């Protein structure tokens, strides 16, 4: 029960209004410590309820009578516009019975409108690092009186190349009394450096290890012969699965556009979201999906980051994500807050080793599924190593025959990946023992 926390009654009223009954594990662990003013490092994935875990303590600290605002008291930094918008919404829902005001600063929005908002001085400022720095450079942003700093999805901010910007903004919060850093993964050395620099004797809560995906989400793989076959399977799934809303992930913008085109041609209510879409399109896609006008979203990783849409119960990986963390982020779109979800990955011979690395990384075995109506010939490698990866096939054979189908499972070679079109995936390297696959230049934080 939320009443177990020493939260102000106006916040408990909002919690009740939102029909939150039981705190999630991350909330149960983090809220009491955050209320004590402790610095926190929390490893928790999207969908775990982490936003309320920091928003409620932040609001509790700020709650009080209406007054003229003189300074920003809380800064929440996060990687993408969508996550910023969702966090703002969560803050507004929880603060509905208080006088606390919040504002948002992200790329893709009118700079002057943001400057005007900053002149009114919100209590809580939420935003992405790039635009924050621009507002800071323009002399519109004063962070000197910030008491609480939250770095949400810190691992992702670092992956997207925001380390210096974040560091600079942290440096501006000279009088901060509490810092909370959230990440979906335990991260690499850059995250460790940031934790060491930014947090003061933090409590580390590893509530949701990256390997513990939402247990309510079933994870399946379906083998496919090639991309055209994948499209047939996709069509079958979208026509026959029971779902309210679905998201189809691709690794490239071109693939997202291609699949979107095919779906629209079949009169599906679909939308496409990737880094080349402007902010208006992105908002429209998300709003329509939320309102139910659109049932299927085709998206790349950057674009879908932070999406939180009720009823999103089917995730299809048309392309396998290139790291275990990315897989977790994608699958985190479904099965949120205890709802059932289904995640299906389509696996060609070139995807097999990546898929098996991800299984190992997650310490899980995906359910193998066959659909007789669209069954192909490829069913996985003929021989697998103890690791689950395919036993290598001599390259010469493949080249000579030029017939990939007959070669069985073939490891995705570096070259093949390097030759892919420009990726929309932001993470640069695999982490924590994942297959060391090279990434192409990531999409510039176009999400910014
Ligand atoms: P988050 O991980 O913060 O993005 O939260 C995922 C979703 O779960 C959001 O839609 C929240 O509003 C919802 N949520 C968070 N905590 C709870 C809770 N204790 N009870 C029910 N829903 C929750």
Automatic annotation (TrEMBL):
PROSITE patterns given in the database record: DEAD_ATP_HELICASE, HELICASE_ATP_BIND_1, HELICASE_CTER, Q_MOTIF
Residue ranges annotated for the Helicase C-terminal domain, each copy included: 232-377
Region called Disordered, residue ranges: 381-448
Ranges where the Helicase ATP-binding domain occurs: 31-204
Any GO MF annotation of the entry: ATP binding
GO cellular component assignments: cytosol
Signal peptide: none
SMART domains, per the entry: DEXDc, HELICc
Domain DEAD-box RNA helicase Q per the UniProt entry, residue ranges: 1-28
Span(s) of short sequence motif Q motif: 1-28
Bias (Basic residues) ranges: 382-398, 407-419
UniProt cross-references to SUPFAM superfamilies, sorted A to Z: P-loop containing nucleoside triphosphate hydrolases (SSF52540)
Sorted UniProt keywords: ATP-binding, Helicase, Hydrolase, Nucleotide-binding
Entry-linked InterPro entries: DEAD/DEAH_box_helicase_dom, DEAD/DEAH_RhlB, DEAD_box_RNA_helicase, Helicase_ATP-bd, Helicase_C-like, P-loop_NTPase, RNA-helicase_DEAD-box_CS, RNA_helicase_DEAD_Q_motif
Entry's family note: Belongs to the DEAD box helicase family.
Protein name: ATP-dependent helicase
Phylogenetic placement of the source organism: Bacteria, Pseudomonadati, Pseudomonadota, Gammaproteobacteria, Pseudomonadales
């Amino acid at each position: 029960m939320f009443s177990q926390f020493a939260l102000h009654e106006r916040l408990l009223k909002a919690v009740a209004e939102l029909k939150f009954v039981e705190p999630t594990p991350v909330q149960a662990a983090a809220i009491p410590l955050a209320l004590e003013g402790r610095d926190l490092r929390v490893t928790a994935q999207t969908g775990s309820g982490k936003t309320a875990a920091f928003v409620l303590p932040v609001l509790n600290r700020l709650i009080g009578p209406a007054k003229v605002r003189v300074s920003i008291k809380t800064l929440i930094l996060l990687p993408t516009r969508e996550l910023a918008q969702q966090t703002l919404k969560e803050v507004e829902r929880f603060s509905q019975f208080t006088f606390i005001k919040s504002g948002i600063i992200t790329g893709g929005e009118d700079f002057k409108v943001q400057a005007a908002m900053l002149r009114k001085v919100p209590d809580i400022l939420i935003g992405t690092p790039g635009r924050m720095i621009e507002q800071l450079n323009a002399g519109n942003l004063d962070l000197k009186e910030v008491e609480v700093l939250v770095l949400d999805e810190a691992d992702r901010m670092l992956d997207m190349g925001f380390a210096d910007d974040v560091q600079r903004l942290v440096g501006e919060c000279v009088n901060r009394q509490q810092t909370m850093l959230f990440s979906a993964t335990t991260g690499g050395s850059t995250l460790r450096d940031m934790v060491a620099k930014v947090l003061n004797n933090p409590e580390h809560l590893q509530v949701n290890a990256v390997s513990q995906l939402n247990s309510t989400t079933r994870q399946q793989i379906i083998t496919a012969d090639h991309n055209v076959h994948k499209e047939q399977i996709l069509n079958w799934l979208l026509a026959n699965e029971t779902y309210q809303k679905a998201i189809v992930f691709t690794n490239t913008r071109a693939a997202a556009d291609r699949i979107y085109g095919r779906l629209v041609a079949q009169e599906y209510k679909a939308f496409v979201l990737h880094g080349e879409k402007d902010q208006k399109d992105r908002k429209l896609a998300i709003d329509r999906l939320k309102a139910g006008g659109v049932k299927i979203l085709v998206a790349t990783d950057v674009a879908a980051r932070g999406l939180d849409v009720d009823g999103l119960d089917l995730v299809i990986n048309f392309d396998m994500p290139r790291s275990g963390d990315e897989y977790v982020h994608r699958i985190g779109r479904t099965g949120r807050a205890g709802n059932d979800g289904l995640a299906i990955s389509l696996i060609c011979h070139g995807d097999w080793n990546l898929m098996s690395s991800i299984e190992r990384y997650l310490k899980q075995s995906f359910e193998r599924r066959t659909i007789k109506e669209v069954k192909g010939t490829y069913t996985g490698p003929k021989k697998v190593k103890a690791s689950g990866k395919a036993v290598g096939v001599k390259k010469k054979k493949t080249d000579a025959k030029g017939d990939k189908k007959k070669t069985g499972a073939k490891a995705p070679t570096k070259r093949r990946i390097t030759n892919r079109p420009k990726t929309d995936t932001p993470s640069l390297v695999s982490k924590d023992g994942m297959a060391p696959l090279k990434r192409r230049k990531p999409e510039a934080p176009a999400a910014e």
